[in-house]
Each structure stands twice: as C-alpha cells, then as structure tokens.
Amino acid sequence: MKKSEAVSEYFFKQEKYQNELFYLRKLIFEQLPNVKESIKWKMPFYDYQKKPLLYLRPIKENLIIGFMDGANLEDEEHLFAQKSLSLKRIRYLYFPQIIEQENIENLTEKEIEIQNKELQLFEQNFCKMLQKATIFIDNKSANS
C-alpha cells in the first residue's frame, strides 16, 4: 500500500471535503491494497492492474466518485447517478452529505442514527462497486 504524497497534499488543500476524501482513500486501500494512487487531470486517480479504476472529484455541491468503466458494471441497486451523454464509459456515485462535526450537537439522536445508517449503506455499496469494477478489469485483462 503506497499512498501518494501529491494526493495527500491535494486532500489537505480541500476545505469542504477533506475528511470525506481521506475516508474514501482509507476504504479504497482497505479493499484494494495494491491499488496505485496518483494525480491525473488535477484529480486523485486510482489504478488497478495499471488500468484506471476510479477518480475522486470534489465540486461545489458534491463529492463525485467516478468509475472509469462504470458503463460496463451492473447496477441493480441503481447506485450510479443518471447516465451522462458526455461521459459514455464513466458512471459516478455521489458521496452522501455528511453533517459537519460542529453541527452534530444540534441534531437529535434519530438524525444522527439516520446519518450513520446512510454512511454504512454507502460504504457497503461503494465496496460492492469496487469489487465489480476490479472483476471487470480482471476479466478484460484475461480476454486480451
């Protein structure tokens, strides 16, 4: 597991989604210890078996997780955002909105419980999609 200094620097520069980016990085490396992390096109990218697997892209309103061969992955749970005509191969997930730590004290127990369940569900679904994406790359490599 080799983490990129450039990616760490990129994460530290992100004010809005810094915690979420580090959380996703942790999940990615837990699921795929041999993944290669780098900066491409000014975004963190993760390559699996020398093939682009996914990227992380914080934008104003969302944190996008783009799966490079997402169009080839089965999505029975309808996790991916709606297909984009301009991104034929890529499908993406949005990271769920997380309530900032300083605002947690204003939440009810029920709201905190809902937030935690959403995060657990996201984590399960994200790990499923990572597994599907790596299986797709493995099969594609075996057939080449």
Question: Could you walk me through the main structural features you see in this protein, from its secondary elements to its overall organization?
Answer:
The chain has 144 residues and is an alpha+beta fold. The chain has one domain (5-142): Aspartate Aminotransferase, domain 1, CATH 3.90.1150.200. The chain is built from 3 helices and 5 strands; from the N terminus they run H-H-E-E-E-E-E-H. The chain has helices at residues 5-13, 18-31, 109-142; strands spanning 36-40, 43-48, 51-58, 63-67, 91-94. The chain has a 5-stranded antiparallel β-sheet with strand order 1-2-3-4-5, covered by helices on one side. Strand 3 and strand 4 form a beta hairpin. The chain starts with a helix and ends with a helix.
Largest sheet: 5 strands, antiparallel
Broad CATH class: Alpha Beta
Distance between the termini: 27 Å
- Topology, number of strands: 5
Tally of helical runs? 3
Q: What average pLDDT do the residues reach?
A: 83
Oligomer: single chain
Q: Class by helix and strand content?
A: alpha+beta
Radius of gyration: 16 Å
Helix content: 25-40%
CATH architecture: Alpha-Beta Complex
Q: Please name the CATH topology.
A: Aspartate Aminotransferase, domain 1
What is the ordering of alpha helices and beta strands? HHEEEEEH
Write the layout of secondary structure elements.
Elements: H1 5-13, H2 18-31, E1 36-40, E2 43-48, E3 51-58, E4 63-67, E5 91-94, H3 109-142
Antiparallel strand pairs: 1-2, 2-3, 3-4, 4-5
Protein name: YdhG-like domain-containing protein
Pfam family, one: DUF1801
Organism: Bernardetia litoralis (strain ATCC 23117 / DSM 6794 / NBRC 15988 / NCIMB 1366 / Fx l1 / Sio-4)
